[in-house]
Amino acid sequence: MKLIKKLSPLSGIVAFLSLASPAFAQEISIVVPTPAILKITDLGQFISAILAAVLVIATLAAFVFLLLGGLSWITSGGDKAAVEGAQKRIQAAIIGLFVVFAAWAIMLVIGRFLGVNPFELTFPTAAP
Question: Is 93 exposed, middle or buried (0-12, 13-18, 19+ CB in 10 A)?
Fold first, then answer.
């Protein structure tokens, strides 16, 4: 009797699956075109994109470390070592932000001085 009770849910599932009609897979091709912004045709555009991405990532990382330092300061619970560690993390994050913005400003100043925009580099190509 116990065996029949154990098999009854299983037999219901088997019966349901046997009544289901088979599905025939159809071949569907999906073409995703590359956006015009991502088409890099020369080395200058690639370097410019890398510079911009590095600056954005470095800025976001500095802000995250700043937030983590503030959170660890709040949750330190008065522990002197934890407070000092949080202060050092916040100080390092602020120095990191300063370095990122200084690098950005130096790139713009040198670019203006040389007449080149570092975020829109173009290299000369050979004439065909």
Answer: buried
